[in-house]
Amino acid sequence: MQIKLMLTSCLMASFFLSSCGYMLKPNKRKEVKEVSIGDPQAFELQDPDCDLGDDKPKFSKAVKIWMVDQANNLRQQSFDLSNVSRAGLESAAVSEALYSSEDVDSRSFFYAGKDRYLSKFKDHKALHALEQEHDNGIFKKISFCRPNGGYRAESIENAALAAFVAINEANKIHKGLTLGSDGKALNKIKLFVHPKLFARENDYVKEYHVDNAFWANFPSFQLIAVLPHSKEWEEARKLRFWETPGVFAHEYGHHIFHTYAPFAENPASEELYRINNGFNEGFADLVSYFSLSARRRLNPALMLSGESKSPNRDVTNSTISYMTMQGPIEYEKIYDSNIVSILGATETYLIDHVDSEGRFLQECHESGAIIAYVFNTLMNGYGYEKNPSKKMELLISWLVSLERQVILERHNGPQEHLEKSLRKMLTTLDHHGSKEGALELTPGKKKELIEELFPHYQRKWGNN
């Protein structure tokens, strides 16, 4: 089964992709029974008759939520949600939390618009199904009649609360930043729990979107969706996405990326889109890492490929690896000549030269893991190791400059765009360091950082 979530420039950014390695072939019989694959495991409202009226009561200070701790053990933890509405989790970050257990056909769910990267759904009208189905009563607001929480780990209420905590943490760190003229207000997002999305492969195959979470941008609102897990996931991996808060701080990172750099999500070519999509994923990983305390960071038990045992997504881990038929392959997370040639490849080069090894590194989550490690290590070298808020400010300053570059230099080729984008982070650090009295790097120390993290560019950059 291939999970086909649309990773498009202006539409969706998802956390995870996996494949079960087989395809269903068309059945030529005249009478066929509908086949469902990726069947979502049901989880339901624990208090379906909860009615809070029009008072919009708030939670108590200590709310118990099932979530994994730093040791990956699932347990109830207490969080302060005293300013959060129990009617739909309305807060500074979320406008409302919604759920539905009914099916939604993704052919009408996705907003096609004029996005050049949509393929499968581009011929369908933009029906804005989420808005329509919400208006039709399919999506309902989640209410919480228990002011102290205490819902079952597998309930919709607990899934919504756990996702909300991570989103709220990411929103709080952004709210506390000092960004000056670069600062922007973040729109509230809608939180959708258990949207049973499916796409029809043909007349009899219904393929569900499962084992994922995503951020999406629609004309009238942005959302973060909590998808259900499949039976295979539940049996093999145990931990659920909503139990690992780093996933949803990551998704909120996409929301921040889009707010500051919407043009960067829709550049002039497929190659630039691939590079910027990796930047988007790496930025979101860093937002998650900086937003959450040690016990709530991105859980290394959840990997990019679904099969790898190495913590590719850990921004402090210097290697990235994946499994092949011949055994594991491991790379350093640096911009050496091999990585640069793969990430900055033209479409012709992709077709003629890039093997499965290269295509693995071009996938946005893997290339994002490289940028996250490199930028975090670089900022540590400039003296910001113990200041995650300052790192966020630097990342957003870089993102603003990336947006300007995409607008002003849309003619750039992929190699040029990749180099200029990476170089802008050094420029950002040099500018902020001299302006704010941060660590003043000696020429020798800066040269060492460039040689360590950007060996492909060391000769060129070392002379400037």
Observed structural traits:
single chain, 464 residues, alpha/beta, 2 domains, six-stranded mixed β-sheet, four-stranded mixed β-sheet, 38% helix, disordered N terminus
Please characterize this protein's 3D structure.
By secondary structure, this protein is an alpha/beta fold. The protein contains 14 helices and 14 strands. The strands form four sheets. A six-stranded mixed sheet has the order 1-11-12-8-5-7, covered by helices on one side. Strands 2-10-9-6 form a four-stranded mixed sheet. It has a two-stranded antiparallel sheet with strand order 3-4. β11 and β12 (222-226) form a beta hairpin. α6 crosses α10 (364-384). The chain is globular. The termini are far apart.
Architecture blueprint of SSEs:
Elements: E1 12-14, E2 35-37, E3 63-68, E4 74-79, E5 94-99, E6 103-105, H1 106-109, H2 129-135, E7 140-141, H3 156-175, E8 189-193, E9 196-200, E10 205-208, E11 213-217, E12 222-226, H4 231-236, H5 246-260, H6 270-291, E13 319-324, E14 327-332, H7 337-343, H8 347-353, H9 356-362, H10 364-384, H11 388-408, H12 414-436, H13 443-453, H14 458-462
Parallel strand pairs: 2-10, 5-8, 6-9, 8-12
Antiparallel strand pairs: 1-11, 3-4, 5-7, 9-10, 11-12, 13-14
Helix pairs in contact: 3-5, 3-6, 5-6, 6-10, 6-11, 10-12, 10-13, 11-12
